[in-house]
């Protein structure tokens, strides 16, 4: 089920009669919200509102470089304006917008959920995904279509795709948050230094150039659970030096359980394991 | 609109009629307007009413009795959209209701109130940027004033 903020963004688009790619400024104008670019340093976005109405003013930091990120910030502030329980004006710091770190305050996470759905609506995204294999080339093209940032589009892509994918945001050599599709049943290691076998680690390693293509890397380098060293995962990483970060798309075209390591397990099976005299569990190494 | 026939309210009804005229003739919009002018926050009042009715329903639940149908119906109709639900259809309907209610033209409170939660982050905001925020507040206040004229 879609989250409550996403449902409210969807209901807003429906109420405004927007059935394609939304024009964010038209949405704001329909709500009687003004948008101003502000010469500020200590926050990315702010909302001043008239209590009990949708009327307000949004300030967005003018030095945000990417249009997609600026749009996300505006959509995030609209979330604060429209979501239940967000009754006050807000000032949002750089680390609170366009991030899905579970340590963020609930209201900031909700505003990010809202912004994701408002900028990249599920209905429109699903239509554009049909049959395309997960890659950053696809996500970049979607980001241009929706005038959204790469991070927000990657996040939305993973929420909607039926492939086993995850997106990981790393900062200063450490994975900070990830989001995964329902089909990706594994957990990513967070808050520990990136494994040197990952491409993302090379974004922080100095001299190595990170390939612009998907590469097979050791699944064990990313996942928390024990998997054999030869189990592979497809990694596609974009270094984002301006934010000291790296955005990674992980994809498992086949479930890990059908890979070579499961064949190893099968060789252990013995018909005695299924009888009344069973002494060991079949998957325990003897 | 209809008046209570309870004898305890007779004096109040007489006073209201003298002050306001026959309230039975008022439309819902006129009542909304009147309450807004009196400074009543209808959303907060509705939420308070829901909570009160929910307490009454809780009494029945506690005694393992059926909730009277009018009480259950009132709860259903007044259900705040921010209450959690695991039913996707209820969640979708609640989201739609929330947006429709937000966008419905409402009489403004007697004095437009700006909300200032960002003052909680005062320590993290540069003084130059605080001036920008104050300027934003002033702009919105001026816009409200010129709308009201």
Give the SSE map.
The complex is a heterodimer of chains A (286) and B (149).
Chain A lengths: L3 H12 L8 H7 L2 E6 L6 E5 L6 E6 L5 H16 L7 E3 L13 H14 L2 H8 L6 H11 L3 H11 L4 E7 L2 E7 L18 H5 L11 E4 L13 E9 L4 E7 L8 H9 L18
Chain B lengths: L9 H11 L7 H10 L4 H21 L6 H10 L9 H16 L23 H22 L1
What does this structure look like?
In chain A, helix 3 (67-82) crosses helix 4 and helix 6 (136-146) packs across helix 7. Chain A has helices at residues 4-15, 24-30, 67-82, 106-119, 122-129, 136-146, 150-160, 199-203, 260-268; strands at residues 33-38, 45-49, 56-61, 90-92, 165-171, 174-180, 215-218, 232-240, 245-251. Chain A contains 9 helices and 9 strands. In chain A, strand 8 and strand 9 (245-251) form a beta hairpin. Chain B is mainly alpha-helical and 149 residues long. Chain B has helices at 10-20, 28-37, 42-62, 69-78, 88-103, 127-148. The longest helix of chain B is centred in the last third of the chain and has 22 residues, at 127-148. Chain B is extended. Chain B starts with 9 loop residues before the first helix and ends with a helix. The model of chain B has no long low-confidence stretch (mean pLDDT 79). Classes of the chains: A alpha+beta (286), B mainly alpha (149). The interface between A and B is large, with 40 and 42 residues.
Short description:
With 286 residues, chain A is an alpha+beta fold. Chain A contains 9 helices and 9 strands.
Distance between the termini of chain B: 31 Å
Indicate the multimeric state: heterodimer
Order of helices and strands of chain B: HHHHHH
**Order of the strands making up the biggest sheet of chain A:** 6-5-9-8-7
Low-confidence stretches of chain A: 258-267
Q: Given the helix and strand composition of chain B, which structural class is it?
A: mainly alpha
Largest interface: A-B, 40 and 42 residues
């Amino acid at each position: 089920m879609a989250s409550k903020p996403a449902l409210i963004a969807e209901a807003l688009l429906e109420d405004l009669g927007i059935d394609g790619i939304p024009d964010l400024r038209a949405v704001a104008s329909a709500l009687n919200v003004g948008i101003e670019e502000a010469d500020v340093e200590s926050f990315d976005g702010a909302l001043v509102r008239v209590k009990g109405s949708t009327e307000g003013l949004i300030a967005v930091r003018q030095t945000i470089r990417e249009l997609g990120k600026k749009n996300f910030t505006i959509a995030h502030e609209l979330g604060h304006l429209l979501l239940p329980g967000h009754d006050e004006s807000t000032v949002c710091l750089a680390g609170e917008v366009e991030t899905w770190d579970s340590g963020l305050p609930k209201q900031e996470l909700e505003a990010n959920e809202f912004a994701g759905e408002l900028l990249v609506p599920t209905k429109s995204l699903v239509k554009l995904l049909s049959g395309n294999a997960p890659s950053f080339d696809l996500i970049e093209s979607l980001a241009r279509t929706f005038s959204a940032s790469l991070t927000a589009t990657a996040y939305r892509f993973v929420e909607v795709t039926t492939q086993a994918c995850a997106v990981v945001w790393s900062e200063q050599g450490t994975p900070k948050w990830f989001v995964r599709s329902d089909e990706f049943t594994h957990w990513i290691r967070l808050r520990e230094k990136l494994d040197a076998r990952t491409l993302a680690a090379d974004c922080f390693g100095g001299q190595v150039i990170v390939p612009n293509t998907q590469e097979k890397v050791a699944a064990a380098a990313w996942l928390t659970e024990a998997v054999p060293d030869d189990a592979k995962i497809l990694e596609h990483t974009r270094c984002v030096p301006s934010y000291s970060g790296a955005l990674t798309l992980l994809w498992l075209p086949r479930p890990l359980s059908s890979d070579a390591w499961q064949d190893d397990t099968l060789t252990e099976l013995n018909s005695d394991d299924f009888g009344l005299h069973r002494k060991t569990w079949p998957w325990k190494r003897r | 609109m209809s008046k209570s026939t309870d004898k305890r309210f007779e004096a109040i009804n007489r006073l209201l009629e003298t002050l306001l005229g026959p309230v039975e003739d008022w439309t819902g919009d006129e009542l909304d307007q009147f309450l807004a002018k009196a400074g009543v926050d209808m959303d907060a009042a509705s939420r308070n009413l829901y909570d009160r009715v929910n307490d009454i329903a809780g009494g029945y639940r506690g005694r393992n009795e059926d909730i009277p149908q009018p009480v259950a119906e009132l709860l259903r109709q007044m259900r705040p959209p921010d209450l959690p639900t695991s039913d996707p259809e209820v969640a979708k309907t609640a989201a739609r209701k929330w947006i429709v209610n937000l966008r419905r033209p409402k009489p403004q409170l007697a004095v437009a109130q700006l909300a200032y939660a960002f003052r909680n982050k005062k320590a993290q905001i540069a003084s130059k940027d605080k001036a920008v925020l104050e300027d934003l507040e002033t702009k919105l206040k001026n816009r409200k004033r010129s709308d009201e004229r």
